[in-house]
Design brief:
The structure is a single chain. The protein folds into 3 domains: 100 residues, Orthogonal Bundle (Helix Hairpins); 79 residues, Orthogonal Bundle (Helix Hairpins); 50 residues, no CATH class. Helices cover 73% and strands 0% of the residues. The chain contains 13 helices and no strands. It is globular, with a radius of gyration of 25 Å. The model has no long low-confidence stretch (mean pLDDT 90).
Amino acid sequence: MTDLIHDPHGGLPRLIEIMRRLRDPETGCPWDIAQDFSTIAPYTIEEAYEVADAIEREAWDDLKGELGDLLFQSVFHAQMASERGLFDIGQVADTMSDKMIARHPHVFGEESNAKSPEQQTQDWETIKAAERASRAETRTLDGVALGLPALMRAVKLQKRAARVGFDWPETGQVLDKLVEEAGELVEARDSMTPDEIEDEMGDMLFVMANLARHLGVDPEAALRRTNAKFTRRFNAVEDALEADGRKPGESTLDEMDALWEAAKLAERRKSP
């Protein structure tokens, strides 16, 4: 297998063999040998976000590397599973292939593919519901992964509940609820315990996620966009202060706020 490991065009078999060697209990890497599913899971999540970041930046060369990092995570988990006699990477691929064929009868089966995207989405949800039923996931919210980012999981929970009619019919009602939750937090913040404040804050964020869903906005994407905007504008504030020989800690809030507004104005002028 030495030739395969050093073959620059060895593709997926090369990566699988490298992973196997890294986990070899006698000659492998001590760090890799010491890992298990729970210790690697955070890296898997991180790599998925690195992929999203590269796409957001349209950094296509970076995307190739980030997809490789994410693929390595799958290979890592599959190697650990193989060592336990659970499954291997080939079975992982077969499982996904079977799932895609089953979920696309309009492509791989006898059904017509002359369907609207909306109808295909509805069919997809019907098929997934049947899959959940086969796994004895009979409750409406069963199967919504606990490990998802909280904001993303909130939206998925709300979508599931909405399918059975548990949803506000109008966006205005969601806005009213948001105002109510914000008011409760403001009015009682001085008398609440930290745990109660966290609970109320969670309620407000949950309603915000619901509002985003009603408006057809992905709240994760919206927040990433705002994070990028904040970073861009704060960098402009730092650049302006640096040109004056100062750092943020050496200026006042009023000064930084004025530079922030200038950065906003400059961005608007650049917008088409």
